[in-house]
Every structure is written in C-alpha cells, then in structure tokens.
Design brief:
single chain, 26-stranded mixed β-sheet, mainly beta
Length: 357
C-alpha cells in the first residue's frame, strides 16, 4: 500500500493482529492509528458471515486538507444495500479521534449485527468533552428502510446544570421519521414531530414545549420562562414558519411572549416578536436578519409604556421614564443607519426626543 507504515506489529491478519502504530500519508492526507488491534474468525466465512470479535484503536488522528472540488449538487439518495455476507460485530472500541487537529470524539464503542434483513445496533456509545450518547435500535434494509432507535444523551454546558435527553425515533428513512425527545435538567420540556430526512429540502413539522426555563442560572427570577410552545413547519426551500407563545414570570404579573417568523437557509424574517404586559403595555419587534452575504439587519421597534422593571426588579428605576418609542434600524456588514422618535417623562414633565442614528 503506497504511503503505509506499520510499526511493531505481531500476529496474523487471518486471525488476531495488532501493532503499536499505523501511519498512511499521501498527497497531503494523513491517517495515524495508535495501537490498532484486530481479531476475527475466518471460519465464520464458511457460514457466509464476517465475525469481528474485536476491532480497537487507542487513538486516531486524521488530516484531510480542504480540496478545491465543488460540492455535489445532486440530492442525497440512499441505495438499496444488499451485503454478500452477514456481519457480526462483537466489539468495536475507539479512543480519541481528531480531524485536522480538532477533537471529534473521546471514545466510541459499538456492538452490532448486520444480517440480510437489516442492521441491529445492540449498543452504540460515544463520548465527547460535552456529550455522552447511547443508542440501540434496528434498521431494515428493504422497502422504505424502517428504522427504530432508542437512546439517551447527557450534555454538559459550561457552568450550567446537567442536561439529559431521552430519544426515540420511529418510521421509514425513505418516507418520514417520527421524533420524540424528552429533556430534563437545564431545560425541561419535550420536542416531537416528523421529518423527511432524505428529501433535499428537509420537510419537517416540529413542536417544542418548555417550562420553567432560565438560559443563565443567575438571571432574575422574574425572567423565568414559565411556559413556551413553539411550532415549526415547512422546508429549507420555502422556509420554516415559526409560531409560538408563552409567558415570562415577571414580578407583580406575568409578561406574555408571542412570535411569528419565517426561517430559511439565508435569512430570518420576523413578522412579530412581542412582549405584552397587558393594558396596551408592550414591546413589538419586526424585521429581517440575513447572513448569506455578510450580516444584514432591518428592524422596526415599537415601545408602548412597557413596565420593564417587571422583568428587572432589582434595577433602580431612573428618573426618566420611556413612554413611547418608534425606532428603525438598517445594518449592512458594518454600516448602519437608523432613526428613533420617543416620548418620555422626567422630573420637569413630559418631553419628546427624536434623532437619526
């Protein structure tokens, strides 16, 4: 094999084989495997089965410089898979995996069987610095590729409470998959819906329900998101339409939250993002945020006598109160232009303030 080096190897490839180091280099690409180990049973081939008893690597380091080839424009498709042999994997264990200098995995373990009617994952376990994932399930390789997966995940965000997820996926890969996720800890709630994963525009219908959530633990209790229900429906081409409502706890009364928006691969269009404290006291934001060619923002803000100290009760109220404000802002990759028109009250009475920005 051109470019291949093997150090301190012993055993037989037709049975059990191991080495201290395996290195392959060619055309700027580099693969280094520390302590590879392989054990398999050639006699299983008489039963038309490839039996891998053990496949291990202590560390894998991959270097693949980015190429100049354009990305494929053809939509992804999954062909029918008909293996000439059945596959039985008793144990696969991989330590740290690095790609172009960045750690991708700390460890991976797999036990699986691939028979003529499909793949059975007895256990798939992977670890990263901030993620632990365990999965088990079955994928049939006929018809519309029925899939059933169950698992759990644990995430650790810096200086945040523990976060656990329970995952369930059912359906057909060529048609649609039903998702059900239960979240506890840092974020308590559920995510469910359906998605067509092999369609190029990724059609999906999802619903997220949260309760008693604070993005940062030391935020005021008044900013506790007591409830949020958010739905998303659409695809990447036409955009996903978002609609949600909920409420923040507040002090002396809750504050309602409402969102209507359209999100696609190039921009987010917000028809209305509103905080409503009742009695015509509200903040409403409308606008667009684009990122396809630099960052672009167009926003309109309407402030109507909003009782902001209901959300920030520990901040001392200034002597000047904002009663009404209408503001416009345009930002385009470093340049900005805006205008505001406000009505305020102060120690000397009511006054107005307006200016370009």
């Amino acid at each position: 094999v051109p470019g291949l080096q093997v150090e301190q190897f012993q055993g037989r490839l037709a049975g059990r084989w191991e080495a201290e180091r395996l290195l392959w280099e060619q055309d700027g690409n580099r693969v280094e495997v520390i302590e590879p180990r392989l054990a398999w049973s050639p006699s299983c081939l008489l039963r038309r089965t490839l039996c891998i008893k053990e496949l291990q690597a202590g560390k894998i380091d991959l270097i693949f410089p980015p190429g100049d080839e354009p990305a494929a424009s053809e939509p992804f498709s999954l062909a029918d898979i008909q293996l000439p042999l059945e596959l039985r994997i008793e144990r696969v264990e991989v330590g740290q995996v690095r790609l172009n200098g960045l750690e991708q995995l700390q460890s991976l373990q797999l036990r699986a069987d691939w028979r003529r009617d499909g793949l059975t994952i007895r256990t798939l376990s992977l670890r990263r610095e901030d993620l632990a994932l365990n999965l088990a399930g079955r994928l049939r390789t006929d018809g519309d590729l029925p899939l059933k997966l169950r698992g759990d995940a644990a995430l650790q965000l810096p200086e945040m409470p523990a976060w656990t997820l329970k995952l369930a996926v059912d359906g057909e890969l060529r048609e649609h998959l039903l998702l059900a996720v239960q979240s506890k800890g840092y974020l308590n709630g559920t995510l469910d819906g359906r998605v067509r994963p092999l369609e190029p525009d990724l059609p999906a219908t999802l619903r997220l329900a949260l309760n008693d959530f604070k993005a940062i633990p030391d935020l005021p209790e008044a900013l506790l998101l007591e409830r949020l229900e958010l739905g998303a429906e659409g695809n990447l081409k036409d955009g996903y339409r978002l609609a949600g409502d909920g409420n923040l706890k507040g002090e002396g009364g809750s504050v309602a939250l409402m969102l209507e928006a359209l999100l696609d691969a190039e921009q987010a269009s917000v028809q209305s993002l509103q905080l409503d404290a009742g009695d015509a006291q509200l903040i409403e934001l409308q606008g667009q945020l684009g990122w396809s060619e630099g960052l672009r923002v167009e926003a309109q803000l309407a402030w109507r006598d909003f009782p902001w100290r209901r959300l920030y009760p520990n901040v001392e109220e200034p002597p000047v109160a904002l009663r009404r404000m209408d503001a416009l802002l345009q930002y385009d990759d470093g340049s900005y232009l805006g205008h505001f028109d406000a009505a305020l009250s102060g120690p000397a009475g009511d006054f107005s303030l307006r200016s370009p920005v």
